[in-house]
Amino acid sequence: xxxxxxxxxxxxxxxxxxxxxCVSSGHTDPWPCMAWFRQSLENExxxxxxGLAALDADGVGTLYAASVKGRxxxxxxxxxxxxxxxxxxxxxxxxxxxxxxxxxxxxxxxSWWIQDEYNYWGxxxxxxxxx
Length: 131
What we know:
Blueprint: E1 3-7, E2 10-13, E3 18-25, E4 33-39, H1 41-44, E5 50-56, E6 62-64, E7 72-77, E8 82-87, E9 96-103, E10 120-121, E11 125-130
């Protein structure tokens, strides 16, 4: 059974940093594409999640949303089945539930930010940034 488990969330002041991790299990090969999404309380009712960053299995090509580019860094360690998100210069508007996602077959593409591109999701970890 495939599982993705996020950790590393918490409460920080604006300008602070957090590092999120996502450990996946129940598979033998690296996922072709993995990504981080977030969902704020405002978007929860509409079921909208914002794609933040994505990374192919080779760990080289990174994709970022404009809202986090330059502040967040995505990385992965396939040997440890771990996806990470280093978040620096956090802002109150970064407050949300953060989720990792994995695509079973497809490599990251121009539609990496679309939720339907991913087959597996974690339960999320809460990040709260105070001003």
